[in-house]
TrEMBL record:
This protein's name: SDR family oxidoreductase
Cofactor: NAD(+)
One GO BP: D-xylose metabolic process
Pfam family, one: Epimerase
Length: 321
């Protein structure tokens, strides 16, 4: 049955992937974006679909709730927010607003229309964790006074808004704590580690590792992340729950650099640079809760996902036709 779905941040990496999937399933999708970090190019292939309606609008707008174009929605995916340190540190106040005021607006819209809602929070809610891997019950080791706080703490406060709307109004909201997600669709100038490494390797530039490379991350291919978000929306048992969505297989950054170098047959050197302030040393999700409630686990290995990403970046960089 066709649903009317609202996606905020639709011109972003995850938003545009999600919109394509929902349209392919026969849904009507309303996409909002103010292009602060979203790219118009991500909307290619969406705008000519007659079941897609795009509106250039800031989700923090006080006019949003009464906008006739967003009424009677059945599902809301609130994805709007800068997600790369490069961007959220450049736009700290906008990052704080979209995850707090913007989240409250979306929750109010969900409450008015009895809509389901997924809020995309982040693994950054765990800060530089002292518990490993990180279960949803872990409260985090976070810093409110640093360059990452505008993102980490705004997402955490967004979760509080979700809690209050669920407890007070029984709003059908679910929170996804998303761990590192990547794919060929991630802009090659995004500033995140996989886009950096693949671009540098393909161009024969130095692969820049921050710190000594022993810090770890877990990388989830975008189709697995999107599948998790859709299951989160679908399952009523997830209402009022926080769920880790990420790949539990952990790699050190130096392992990733060497794997990218190998898969690209690159002659790049690996160079080491000072670690940015508050950069987490480890990051790996416990996905037991997602397995039990959603029946979800990622299926694409890092090697498989990197091969797809490398092939697409070669096209983007005009290295192949």
């Amino acid at each position: 049955m066709e649903k009317k779905v609202l996606i905020t941040g639709v011109a972003g990496f995850l938003g545009s992937h999600l919109a394509k999937e929902l349209l392919n399933e026969g849904n009507f999708v309303i996409g909002l974006d103010n292009f602060s970090t979203g790219k118009r190019s991500n909307l290619q292939g969406l705008l000519d679909n007659n079941r897609f309606f795009f509106k250039e609008l800031d989700v923090c707008s006080s006019y949003l709730l009464d906008d006739p174009d967003v009424q009677h929605v059945q599902e809301i995916y609130h994805l709007a927010s800068p997600a790369s340190p490069k961007y959220y540190q450049a736009f700290p106040f906008e990052t704080i607003q979209v995850n707090t005021i913007g989240t409250k607006n979306m929750l109010e819209l969900a409450k008015r229309h009895q809509a389901k809602m997924v809020f995309t929070s982040t693994s950054e809610a765990y800060g530089d964790p002292e518990v490993h891997p990180q279960p949803e019950t872990y409260r985090g080791n976070v810093n409110t006074w640093g360059p990452r706080a505008c993102y980490d703490e705004a997402k955490r406060l967004g979760e509080v808004f979700c809690y209050e709307y669920f407890k007070r109004y029984n709003t059908k909201v679910k929170v996804a704590r998303i761990f590192n997600t990547y794919s060929a669709g991630l802009a090659n100038d995004d500033g995140r580690v996989i886009s950096n490494f693949v671009t540098q390797a393909l161009k024969g530039e130095d692969i820049t590792v921050y710190g000594d490379g022993t810090q770890t991350r877990s990388f989830c291919y975008v189709s697995d992340t999107i599948h998790g978000l859709k299951l989160l929306m679908e399952k009523d048992g997830a209402n009022g729950e926080i769920m880790n969505i990420g790949n539990p297989v952990e790699y050190s950054i130096i392992e990733l650099a060497n794997l990218v170098k190998k898969l690209t047959s690159s002659t790049s050197s690996i160079t080491f640079h000072p670690l940015p302030e508050d950069d987490p040393k480890v990051r790996r999700p416990s996905i037991i809760k997602a397995k039990i409630i959603l029946g979800w686990a990622p299926s694409i290995t890092l090697t498989e996902g990197l091969q797809k990403t490398i092939q697409e970046y070669k096209v983007k960089l005009n290295l192949i036709n």
